[in-house]
Design brief:
The chain has about 450 residues and is an alpha/beta fold. The chain folds into two domains: about 240 residues, Aldehyde Dehydrogenase, Chain A, domain 1 (3-Layer(aba) Sandwich), CATH 3.40.605.10; about 180 residues, Aldehyde Dehydrogenase, Chain A, domain 2 (3-Layer(aba) Sandwich). The protein has 14 helices and 18 strands. A seven-stranded mixed beta sheet has the order 12-13-14-11-10-15-16, sandwiched between helices. The chain has a six-stranded mixed beta sheet with strand order 7-6-5-8-9-17, with helices on both faces. It has a three-stranded antiparallel beta sheet with strand order 3-4-18, with no helix packed on it. It starts with a strand and ends with a strand. The model has no long low-confidence stretch (mean pLDDT about 95). The structure holds nicotinamide-adenine-dinucleotide. Nicotinamide-adenine-dinucleotide binds next to helix 7 and helix 8.
Length: about 450
């Protein structure tokens, strides 16, 4: 049995039967049977069904948000925002079935045109930090393009995915189109990756597991998209609005208790304003309200598990210079306080590895060249921010930072209509925006001869 915990209280929320390889096979078989019918649903009808699903998700927003907060420990306000995004994602892709256009290509002797066709059964494997949100980024474009799917949520956070399966069916999505399998990575996850009837795996999770997924998918030449880890830089130049940057920096890393692939977990600060920046940041860190996820004032909840807290704490115990630390509750729950390490060298472990907790490394830099060099001196390339009042500098630096998503004078990374994904070892492919559809369709080219006789 799988015991699903509330990380804020350590209470068991639910005990679930764990799926086996046979259950994974059965889910793939259901999705395979449902595929031809779903593929052939008229585009306008597929749009209508996805809109019904988006409306149903909106009606269930509060229930889903409460469930997600119980299972992940997220502040309830954050969960509400995430569930609104889940519905928005389905609304956005509901508009896409009639926009999957092909090309007409001038060739001699005939007419050449392309179709964009669905792949078939897609397996979606997602992590525990944004359980339903990240699943929706995959499910909505997959379904809009006419694929059927098997979703494997993380073992720690399966509850919202199970609710989604029910909501989809009640909203009129035909049986077998959406299948959720809750089971261990070693059995269910691996089976889906290797299954000969699965055409594609869309994975979000750690870079280490991403490598296994890529290798496992090679046996059947599956299409793979990977959204992996990050160690993103928040680059603060001396000419920035320092007060604004310092107030935003804690949010950019301690949001979701730092369990965010886009967390700006390295803050690079120009040497001349290094101490001033830390002083400006201090009140936002020590004043951060860490506690009960259902208290509307809470800004940060617990970590996801005891094991994960131990892993996070080890980075701080290893001789790291703690410059600022906030407070966290004691007692039941996997709490850890917001922690700022400074000054840190970009060579230090805390600056190189993804800690995935509320711990940020603040690193000095000399000038623009040095900032770009240090920001890029990492295996990752997911996200990041640049803070400067000099527009030309902002654009110069933005062009040279090796990362899939950047913001200037802001700490946000994700919007439904814009592409999201990583460079280097942060991933392969893009989610969201119209771009995601490229990863759930195959292009077929057809030539029609117009020659006589
Ligand atoms: P994880 O890699 O341990 O697990 C992710 C999912 O993969 C889970 O469902 C797990 O059961 C499954 N899995 C694990 N091993 C598998 C295997 N060998 N075969 C098939 N499935 C397997 O990640 P996590 O601990 O759940 O999440 C944290 C990680 O996710 C962090 O590294 C974070 O950066 C990353 N992440 C990335 C993004 C992004 O968009 N780039 C978003 C969120 C999280």
């Amino acid at each position: 049995m799988l015991e699903v915990l509330n990380p804020a209280t350590e209470e068991v929320l639910k005990s679930l039967e764990q799926a086996t390889e046979d259950d994974a096979d059965a889910a793939v078989a259901r999705a395979k049977r449902a595929f031809p019918e779903w593929r052939d649903v008229e585009p306008a009808d597929r749009s209508r069904l996805l809109r019904c699903l988006a409306d149903a998700l909106e009606s269930e927003q509060e229930n889903l948000a409460r469930l997600e907060s119980e299972n992940t420990g997220k502040p309830i306000g954050d969960s509400r925002g995430e569930m609104a995004m889940v519905a928005e994602t389905f609304h956005y892709y509901a508009g896409m079935p009639e926009r999957l256009l092909g090309d007409t290509i001038p060739v001699s002797g005939g007419v050449d045109f392309t179709f964009r066709e669905p792949l078939g059964v897609v397996a979606l494997i997602v992590p525990w930090n944004f359980p339903l949100t990240i699943a929706s980024w995959k499910m909505a474009p997959a379904l809009a393009a006419g694929n059927t799917l098997v979703l494997k949520p993380a073992e720690l956070t399966p509850l919202s995915a199970l609710e989604f399966e029910r909501i989809a069916l009640e909203a009129g999505i035909p049986e077998g189109v959406v299948n959720v399998v809750v089971g261990p990575r070693s059995r269910v996850g691996k089976r889906l990756v290797e299954h000969p009837d699965v055409a594609k795996v869309a994975f979000t999770g750690s870079t280490e597991v991403g490598k296994d997924i890529m290798a496992g998918a090679a046996g059947t030449i599956k299409r793979v998209t990977l959204e992996l880890g990050g160690k993103s830089a928040n680059v603060v130049f001396a000419d920035a609005d320092l007060e604004k940057a310092a107030a935003s920096a804690p949010v950019a890393v301690f949001g979701n208790a730092g369990q965010d692939c886009c967390a700006r977990s390295r803050i690079l600060v120009q040497r001349g304003v290094f101490d001033e920046f830390l002083s400006l940041m201090e009140p936002a860190v020590t004043g951060m309200r860490v506690g009960d996820p259902f208290d509307e004032e809470t800004e940060m909840g617990p970590l996801i598990s005891a094991d994960h807290r131990e892993k996070v704490a080890a980075y701080v115990l290893e001789d790291a210079p703690v410059a600022i630390q906030g407070e966290a509750p004691s007692g039941a729950g996997f709490w850890y306080p917001p922690t700022v390490l400074a000054p840190v060298s970009n060579e230090d472990k805390a600056a190189r590895e993804e800690i995935f907790g509320p711990v940020v490394a603040v690193i000095p830099f000399d000038d623009e060249e040095d900032a770009i060099r240090q920001a890029n001196d990492t295996i990752y390339g997911l996200s990041g921010s640049i803070w400067t009042e000099n527009g030309a500098r902002a654009l110069r630096v933005a062009r040279r930072i090796e990362t899939g998503v950047l913001s200037i004078n802001s700490n946000t990374s994700v919007r439904v209509p814009t592409p999201f994904g990583g460079m280097k070892q942060s991933g392969v492919g893009r989610e969201l925006g119209p771009h995601a559809l490229d990863y759930y369709t195959e292009i077929k080219n057809v030539y029609l001869s117009t020659e006589e006789g």
